[in-house]
Specification:
Layout (H helix, E strand, L loop, with lengths): L2 H28 L4 H23 L5 H4 L1 H16 L4 H29 L4 H22 L5 H4 L4 H18 L3 H25 L16
Length: about 220
């Protein structure tokens, strides 16, 4: 494994850990679940987007089933979230930060993997976004909530920007190795900044106006 591949793999593990913590903490905040429920939602949040991406790429079985470290990292993250006591206001802040970290890392890792499989630029960007938001979307659906990606402050847009910053330099200059990793780092940082600024200033994408039903009075 080259240095560049090792760095990308570490990004993937770190994103998995962050999203496992995030998913498990979000689950404990919304409903009362036992340890099995919390761990399950943590693992799904951490690995769901990557599984969807790998299936779409035809890379089966997905990475989480071929490399036990993914499941181990996700399990540790979910268990930490379950056992560590924390005040509610700290929990909210922690969930948001971890979510931004996972979103940032997964959008660039997903886009890079798509490029490695020879996917065209636009689909590669979309696969980066799917990797970033897929696990959280599955988690929210299991919790009976409208997925965050459809309702929250800028969420899919930062992932879209981060993935694009990986794909465009590759499409133009065919960057690989450590130069390719540098574009991933830039993409992840930009995604993280946009997401955290959106949370802080409560920025949102344009929201559709509700159209009154003609039968309503």
């Amino acid at each position: 494994m080259t240095t560049a591949e090792l760095i990308v793999r570490l990004f993937d593990y770190l994103g998995t850990f962050a999203f496992a913590l995030n998913g498990a903490m979000a689950a404990t905040r919304v409903v009362r679940l036992d340890i099995v429920g919390v761990v399950t939602l943590g693992i799904i949040t951490a690995t769901g987007g990557g599984v969807v991406r790998d299936v779409l790429l035809g890379d089966t079985p997905p990475a989480m089933f071929g490399d036990w470290i993914y499941l181990a990292v996700a399990l540790v993250g979910a268990l930490i979230a379950f056992f560590v006591a924390r005040p509610h206001h700290i929990l909210n802040s922690t969930v948001q930060v971890l979510d931004a970290v996972g979103l940032s890392l997964f959008c660039v890792v997903g886009a890079q993997k798509a490029l490695a499989f020879g996917v065209e630029p636009i689909p590669a960007v979309l696969l980066g976004v799917i990797t970033a938001v897929g696990g959280g979307t599955i988690r929210d659906m299991m919790l009976g909530r409208v997925p965050t990606v459809l309702t929250s402050e800028l969420y899919a847009i930062p992932a879209l920007v981060g993935a694009t910053l990986v794909v465009v330099p590759f499409a133009i200059w065919h960057l690989d190795g450590l130069l390719g990793v540098s574009t991933q780092l830039v993409g992840a940082i930009v995604c993280f900044l946009i997401r955290t600024l959106a949370i802080h200033f409560k920025l949102s994408a344009p929201i559709a106006r509700a159209t009154p039903d003609k039968h309503d009075h």
